[in-house]
Amino acid sequence: MVQERRVRVLIDEEKIARRNQEIAVEIAKREPKQLLVVAILKGSFMFAADLMRALHHAGLMPQVEFMHLSSYRDATVSSGQVVILKDIESDVKDRDVLLIDDILESGRTIAFAKDLLAARGARVMTCCLLEKPGKSAVTIKADYVGFTCPDLFVVGYGMDVAHSYRQLPFIGVVET
Questions:
Q1: Residue 170 lies in a domain
Q2: Residue 92 in contact with residue 122, Cβ under 8 Å?
Q3: HEC string of 91-118?
Q4: Does the residue 120 lie in any domain?
Q5: In angstroms, what is the C-alpha Rg of the chain?
Q6: Are 148 and 131 in contact (CB under 8 A)?
Q7: 104-156 pLDDT, tens digit each
Q8: 159 in a domain, yes or no?
Q9: How far apart are CA 160 and CA 74, in angstroms?
Q10: Where residue 46 sits, what CATH number does that domain have?
Q11: DSSP H/E element including 84
Q12: Contact at 8 Å (CB) between 114 and 124?
């Protein structure tokens, strides 16, 4: 268990909510067909839930699935290997799929998931809450990005360190 420490707010709740609405409007303009949201667990669950509500307000009726992938496990640096811990159950052939991840850093996780879903016949759009420029280990650019993130280890809004801090309604940095 991580000892609770003070967390400095990097991106507050209101800014996150506004950006979710903006992203939803951008996605709705594409007029996706049979939209399926695939949220990569665990870090994206809060972002995916709020974005799904925003998509509803933008006039869309997405379905949702969850894929649990990991390249971090309990570490703060990617291992470089993506492992499927839970796959989706829906057939994605000929569907528009919005693949949601919490952070685009090395790019391995979202690239792996995108390739997997595309190989199954999906038209995949990618969306990341945060992007850390210059950290990519693979060539991938998200179709939708919430915010550019400085090179800091962030927590909150679903993201954690050793399973702590996910509950925070904002994105922050643990102070040492």
A1: no
A2: yes
A3: CCCCCEEEEEEEEECCCHHHHHHHHHHH
A4: yes
A5: 15
A6: yes
A7: 988 899 999 999 999 999 999 999 999 998 877 788 999 999 999 999 999 99
A8: no
A9: 10
A10: 3.40.50.2020
A11: strand 83-86
A12: yes
